[in-house]
Amino acid sequence: MSQPHHAVKVWDLPVRLFHWVLVALFAFMFFSGKMKGNWMEWHMYSGYMILALVLFRVLWGFAGSTYARFSSFLAGPGACIAFMKKLLSKSPTHVPGHNPLGGWMVLVLLLVLLAQAGTGLFANDDISIEGPLYKFVSKDWSDQLTSFHYYNFYVLLALAAIHVAAVVFHVFVKKENLVSAMVTGIKKLDPSTEVPAVRFVSSWRALGLFVLALVAVILIVKRPF
Amino acid sequence: MKNKILLAAVAFAIGAGASFQAAAQAKPEQLVKQRQSAMALIGWYFGPIGAMMRGDRPFDAAVVARNAGYLEVLSHMPSEGFQPATKDEKTKAKPEIWSDKAKFDKAMETMQGEISKLAQVAKGGDMGAIKTQFGATGKSCAGCHDDFRMK
């Protein structure tokens, strides 16, 4: 921690808000899914919110600030292997945005979350509640998707555990505080790290895209056509 | 009121009588059919209460009270079909039902108790109270679905 560093803002507000709201909702989904009973009603609302957030994040991956864009963090196999070698050595692994492995993790997490929220829409609990799109599929299909929804949660949980473990590794072994960076948006980078110009997009655009995503979800959920 | 008690008594008597016969000679597939039919009916009468509690359809106290009354009787039926003879049938029933019978029976009793309370509360017609008890009842259903039913 003693080495000199320079502080660079890399995460825009929408990325940070997305991240922490998702963490809170994820915890709530776990809780409400286990509690059952009347919590299931809120489990559904929370699921719609997660769906909207994930859709927003995909849009933001194309139209957001520099380090929010998929093009900035989905690296090729060569870069990934080089990064893994660096990871195991003593050399610092500072990168301004997502590192090559973390970048792919973002994509995987988004896809698995999308699958989780998507199957939830068709699910039924065989007790008293069904997803809003249950009526469009047969009971058999709904049961299959419910089963997927159940097991996929454990996939999600495992991915979240890997994600947290990787962050802990970076914080304690590599001495990079990724957690504070995700809170403040500012990364403390090694002076040797090259930081290309970061272009920040207005948060208003993010708000617009989020509203768009939310309206899309409400249309899917409440106005079945 | 008297009619309902009579009805319940008759249903119980028929059920009990049938179970004496059934237990003696029922084939595994009949037992499975018995419990699945009972479960289907429970779902049939429980589901609409949930829809009303969530506001997906208008609250109708009379329908809730009627359904809850049916459920009170129905809730005692499925356990009868869960007999060891059925353990090789292809269903979603987990083997733990037989290996941890005490826990299974306890979960069944809890569900019956909650449904019984639901039937009581439903007579009052107070939506808030019904909703609370509805949640507790749903949770008690999950008591078996979580641990004794394949996903």
Distance between the termini of chain A: 57 Å
Strand content of chain A: under 5%
* Helix-residue proportion of chain B: over 70%
CATH architecture of chain A: Up-down Bundle
Strand content of chain B: under 5%
Distinct helical segment count of chain B: 7
- Give the integer mean of the pLDDT values of chain A: 93
- From the 3D coordinates, which CATH architecture of chain B would you assign? Up-down Bundle
> Which CATH C-level class of chain B is it?
Mainly Alpha
User: What is the helix/strand order of chain B?
Assistant: HHHHHHH
Low-confidence stretches of chain B: none
Estimated structural class of chain A: mainly alpha
Element pattern of chain A in H and E: EHHHHHHHEH
Uncertain ranges of chain A: none
Radius of gyration of chain A: 19 Å
Total count of domains of chain A: 1
Q: End-to-end distance of chain B, in Å?
A: 41 Å
What's the story with the biggest beta sheet of chain B? Answer: none
Descriptive account of the structure:
The complex is a heterodimer of chains A (225) and B (151). With 225 residues, chain A is mainly α. Chain A has a single domain (6-222), classed as Up-down Bundle (Fumarate Reductase Cytochrome B subunit), CATH 1.20.950. Helix content of chain A is 65%, strand content 4%. Chain A is built from eight helices and two strands; from the N terminus they run βαααααααβα. A two-stranded antiparallel sheet of chain A has the order 1-2. The longest helix of chain A is centred in the last third of the chain and has 34 residues, at 139-172. Chain A starts with 5 loop residues before the first strand and ends with a helix. Chain B is mostly helical and 151 residues long. Chain B has a single domain (28-148), classed as Four Helix Bundle (Hemerythrin (Met), subunit A). Chain B contains seven helices and no strands. In chain B, helix 3 (61-74) packs antiparallel against helix 6 and helix 6 (101-124) runs antiparallel to helix 7 (127-148). Chain B starts with a helix and ends with a helix. The mean pLDDT of chain B is 90. The chains are: A mainly alpha (225), B mainly alpha (151). Chain A binds chain B through residues 35-41, 125-129, 146-147, 150-151, and chain B through 43, 46-47, 49-50, 53-54, 131-132, 134-139, 141-142, 145-146, 151.
